[in-house]
Specification:
single chain; mainly beta; eight-stranded antiparallel beta sheet; two-stranded antiparallel sheet
Length: about 150
């Protein structure tokens, strides 16, 4: 194989749990992460394209959905679930995601976020509680090479 596979456990996430600078790892209990760019796509059907579309991405609302199990005592989870009945600015934070882009290269995504769709309790009575929440970007992310 000529490339490097992006393995999900190689992705590192941190969330701001105390402004202005305390970042906590977002990893304990998390077993699934899904990215959605939620793009706004304009489609144009020009005469010269004989019925086929040309697409133009004009906007997006990126979001990450995290799922897993509730770990009480984990700083990131305790912070997120303490906000579940809060509104407005109380749901705002900052996210940083680091991931490999090659053998020795990484990218770092940093963006203000809003924490949405918090679900803390789910599952059978003998299961550890299943959780999920979304971290939605507020504005354009900063994407930079990692160190």
């Amino acid at each position: 194989m000529d490339g490097t596979l992006l393995t999900m456990y190689g992705i590192e996430c941190q969330i701001q749990t105390s402004p202005p600078s305390t970042m906590s790892p977002l990893c304990a209990g998390i077993d699934n992460l899904a990215e959605a760019l939620n793009e706004v796509v304009q489609q144009y059907f020009f005469l010269c394209d004989k019925g086929f579309a040309r697409n133009h991405v004009t906007g997006m609302a990126p979001a990450y959905t995290f799922t897993g199990r509730r770990v009480v005592g984990d700083a990131a989870q305790d912070y997120i679930f303490s906000l579940k009945y809060k509104l407005d600015k109380d749901r705002q934070s900052k996210l940083q995601i680091t991931y490999k882009t090659g053998e020795d290269a990484t990218n770092v995504i940093t963006c203000p976020i809003t924490i949405c769709n918090i679900q803390e309790f789910s599952g059978a009575t003998t299961d550890d509680s299943a959780i999920s929440f979304e971290l939605r970007f507020d504005g354009a992310p900063e994407v930079a090479p990692g160190e």
